[in-house]
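Data availability (excerpt). The following record was deposited with the supplementary files.
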Amino acid sequence: MLSARGSAWGKADFAHGKQDFYDPSTNPNGVVSFANAENWLLHDDLNDYLNQQTLEKQCCSYGEGYTGSLRLRSAMAKHLNTHFNPFASVHAEEVTFAAGVTSLNELCALLLCDPDDSILLIGPVYGSFTRDLTTKTR
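Predicted structure:
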């Protein structure tokens, strides 16, 4: 028997099943969606780049904790400061990582919003904001 929360999760739209995404050789008539912020056309290039990198063993574990290693958080802080020139510098202690955008969305909703608050989003957007921001945060 499921809890009330489990029953609500069971009704959430998780978009399971075969997707009809464009691929120049295997699915030239597939869909290129501009409704979401994900760029499927970069996957091959990103995969090639990542396969050329050398990663240390600790990159495959929790290492220094579940919010990212100091090395990773420092690199991201440097990137943000260099490319976005924020009013106040970003420090590694102010950066966190999570296991995907769903985890980050849930965390933001849980920490920043009360149950009756609203969040205004503009397009293009990540396609699962509604599920991510409401399923666990009720």
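Summary of structural features: The chain has three domains: 21-53, 64-97, 99-138.
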